[in-house]
Amino acid sequence: LIAGAMAFAPVTAMAADLTIGFSQIGSESGWRAAETTVTKQEAEKRGIDLKFADAQQKQENQIKALRSFIAQGVDAILLAPVVATGWDDVLEEAKDAEIPVVLLDRTVDAPEDLYLTAVTSDLVHEGRVAGQWLVDDAAGEKCDIVELQGTTGSSPAIDRKTGFEEAIAGHDNLEIVRSQTGDFTRSQGKVVMESFLKAVGGENICALYAHNDDMAVGAIQAIKEAGLKPGEDIKIVSIDSVPDIHLAMANGEANATIELTPNMAGPALDALETYFADGTVPPKWIQTESKLYTLEDDNMAVYEMKKDLGY
Ligand code: AHR
């Protein structure tokens, strides 16, 4: 075992010998589908045997998948945790079995010694960038905001809300007048935006903050059906940078997005390969970048480029 490190697997396996279980949340968004594609590609490229389990948005399915991976004696586990809490027991079981767990794209509320590392963006920062974009765009004018939250209890929903609220705090012209979950899906984004438009009146909504692009794309449809111009009558800022939001931005129907790379697996598998090769313990957090795109970017070019990236 690695001196001074976690009591995980003995460091002997070569990359091509590795068997890794991947518990994926589901396929709620374009970004999620891309992450799945990229993870499979990254494993194949390295000759890793990847065992894939789709949890269909249910934590209980993820816990079952983890227990199955443990029973099969995989070398390591990749976990994209649907919600933040409720992981301690199964992570303890993985640790007892000396199987390192790497978190992908979302964090958990569990002791840090229960996982090897987490590959995620700074989720609070993403919310702050979105909020700051709106602060700048509103330029002191009164602006009532509606918010589409991600999956309730998930770390991106919690952190992106926190960051956004931090950024608009102290700007009395900005107020969140409605906030509800759209579960990170296009269909719920549309349904919830329809209810916002009905409750508040489209002419009273200045901006939409959506915790992901898919919900924003659904909301764009609802705004159009209400006879309003998304991107003009209602400004839209969201997160992920999926191809469809860039197409919407190229058409002037959305205003800003913050990029989340779907390639969480590259850094995760690099860390695991090094760990198994020479025992190097990675930092607890491997942070991916967050880049803001606005209408000043060539969004049609970004759309074309992104379409080839597994989305
Ligand atoms: O955890 C990352 C988030 O999950 C993405 O922003 C969203 O699209 C996905 O469903």
Task: Report the helical percentage.
Answer: 40-55%
Mean pLDDT: 95
Backbone structural class: alpha/beta
User: What percent strand?
Assistant: 15-25%
pLDDT < 50 runs, ≥5 residues:
1-5
What ions, cofactors and ligands are bound?
Answer: alpha-L-arabinofuranose
- Specify the biggest β-sheet: 6 strands, parallel
Descriptive overview:
The protein has 311 residues and is of the alpha/beta class. Helix content is 41%, strand content 19%. It contains 10 helices and 12 strands. It has helices at 30-45, 59-72, 88-96, 123-138, 155-168, 186-200, 213-225, 243-250, 265-278, 299-307, and strands at 19-24, 49-54, 76-79, 101-104, 117-120, 143-149, 174-181, 207-210, 235-240, 256-259, 285-287, 292-294. The chain has a 6-stranded parallel β-sheet with strand order 2-1-3-4-5-11, sandwiched between helices. The chain has a 6-stranded mixed β-sheet with strand order 7-6-8-9-10-12, with helices on both faces. β3, α3 and β4 (101-104) form a beta-alpha-beta unit. α4 (123-138) runs parallel beside α5 (155-168) and α8 runs antiparallel to α10 (299-307). The protein is elongated, with a radius of gyration of 20 Å. Bound molecules: alpha-L-arabinofuranose (AHR).
Topology at a glance:
Layout: E1 19-24, H1 30-45, E2 49-54, H2 59-72, E3 76-79, H3 88-96, E4 101-104, E5 117-120, H4 123-138, E6 143-149, H5 155-168, E7 174-181, H6 186-200, E8 207-210, H7 213-225, E9 235-240, H8 243-250, E10 256-259, H9 265-278, E11 285-287, E12 292-294, H10 299-307
Parallel strand pairs: 1-2, 1-3, 3-4, 4-5, 5-11, 6-7, 6-8, 8-9, 9-10
Antiparallel strand pairs: 10-12
Bound molecules: alpha-L-arabinofuranose.
The site of alpha-L-arabinofuranose has 13 residues, from α1 and β9.
Pfam family, one: Peripla_BP_4
InterPro entries: Peripla_BP_I, SBP_2_dom, YtfQ_transport
Main location: other
